[in-house]
Amino acid sequence: MIRIGIVDTDSSHSTEFTKRINHVGIEEEQWVDGGRIVAAFPGYSEAVSDWQNKNRQYTEALVSYGVEMVDSPEALVGMIDAAIVVSDDGRRHYAPAKMLIEQGIPTFVDKPMT
Q: Is residue 114 in some structural domain?
């Protein structure tokens, strides 16, 4: 099983990807097999409207799905085999994606792209 980490939780995509990959609260025909979201860094951007409520809501959901929260994107290294960067603020994608890729971790960068 591929262990997957999420960077930033201010986007609904953090929970939607997790539902499908971890088979939680979603119809079976939408399941994605072969991996599991195991950890996430609950980062945020003050540029995202209502970021405090979104971040809290999505982080609480991820924890209820069995996802461990970590203190930094760097803390994911060694815990995961692949990563998803999902911040609603595309300006926040580059630094963590670059770090993860440099560590040899395959990384999916969600929209928006900047």
A: no
Using the Cα atoms of residue 55, residue 59, residue 60 and residue 65 in order, give the sign of their dihedral.
Answer: positive
Helix axes 12-22, 51-64, angle to 10 degrees: 10
Quick check: helix, strand or coil at residue 2? strand
Contact 62, 18 (CB under 8 A): yes
**Domain that includes residue 68, residue range:** 2-109
Compute how many other C-beta atoms are within 10 angstroms of the C-beta atom of residue 59.
20
Report the 10 Å Cβ neighbour count for 91.
11
Summarised one tens digit per residue, pLDDT across range 16-60 is 999 999 999 999 999 999 999 999 999 866 766 677 777 889 999
3-state SS, residue 81: coil
